[in-house]
Fold this protein.
Amino acid sequence: MKRRLYGIRDRHFPALCLMICLAALVTGCGGKEAVHTSAEAQETQNGDTTRQVELLKPEQTSAAMAQMEIDEETRKELTAQLLEENELDTSVLESRRRTKGCTFELPEGFEEAEDRKGMYVTGRYPIDASTIYSVTGEQDISLQLMTEETFKEQTQENLRELYGEEVTLNIDSFESIRIDGYPAFRILCHYQVEDIQITQLQYVINADKSYMVIYSQTSDYDRMEEYEASAATIKIE
């Protein structure tokens, strides 16, 4: 029984880096010491776009742009048009100062996992499956088009691929906020696999890079108060 339970919990951890749509994000983090994250944006070569994307509905276009090869100028034009049409935050289109990384304080008792860079766990891991994961990726202004609907659809698809079965994602809150002047999302959601419920609190920041911090817990431990306190210290350097 214990072996089965630990095995299931161990499978949850890859989901930590799959719980976001429209962005390819990568790494960083740190205990009541400050956590620092940084990464260089990777350059990509994009091909020509087609006009098909203009015929899609607004909620479909962001997902389509993520899958198609689109040159950066066209992507920016399409994103600007959709942000304005849907009265969304257009500040992401402005030129940004170059950031060094994302910092925040870890709750007491968390330390970096030995085999997963950017993941922080307690000393009772994996019995206590609470985790904090920090990711930094290249800038993608179309990330600002993310909606509760597209987030749920993409996440459920990722979970289906991860677990090999249908998993229902329940979104408790989906908010557009600002962190250090940058547009960001705060997402609280939960899902269940067999008899284990996983709750995740996510912060996605759209600066000159994309920063993501994911706080995760199972129903065996309630650390949400600690997570909220940690999230209040998130800073962009």
